[in-house]
Specification:
This protein folds into two domains: 77 residues, Helicase, Ruva Protein, domain 3 (Orthogonal Bundle); 31 residues, no CATH class. Helix 3 packs across helix 4. By secondary structure, the protein is mostly helical. It is flat and about 45 Å long. It has five helices and two strands, in the order αααααββ. Strands 1-2 form a two-stranded antiparallel ribbon. The longest helix is centred in the middle third of the chain and has 22 residues.
Length: 129
């Protein structure tokens, strides 16, 4: 199922909200509804608070985890815990060195993000040899 965007058929990289076709795709493929999102976010935030997992609790951030697990809150929570742990471990290993390495690549156009999304609504990242 492809998404409908602007006249050229491609969505801009930054979306204010999901298009109607993306909302329909999310409903069909992920069982996402406004009620599922609202209830899932509430349950996920409660688990994060109860288990004291150090992570961001913004709705958009947590929706990534719920969507990736088709709104299964327990599986989404396990993924949030794993993400939080890995982020902590990687920061201890690499610190802020990563930014020093990636910024020159972006500056010299060795890699980048295209200004529009593909027909499925995905962002496109490119790397030059």
């Amino acid at each position: 199922m492809s998404v409908q965007g602007k006249e050229d058929g491609f969505l801009p990289l930054v979306l204010e909200d999901l298009t109607e076709s993306l909302k329909e795709k999310a409903r069909v493929e992920l069982c996402e509804t406004e009620e599922a999102a609202r209830n899932g976010l509430q349950e996920l935030k409660q688990l994060i608070k109860e288990k004291q997992v150090p992570t961001c609790t913004d709705d958009d951030f947590l929706l990534m985890f719920l969507r990736s697990k088709k709104f299964n809150v327990k599986k989404g929570f396990e993924q949030v815990k794993s993400y939080s742990y890995q982020r902590h471990v990687m920061m201890n290993y690499y610190g802020f060195i990563f930014a020093d390495k990636i910024m020159p690549a972006l500056y010299h156009n060795i890699c980048g993000i295209l200004p529009k999304r593909d027909q499925e609504g995905r962002a496109i990242i490119y790397f030059m040899p």
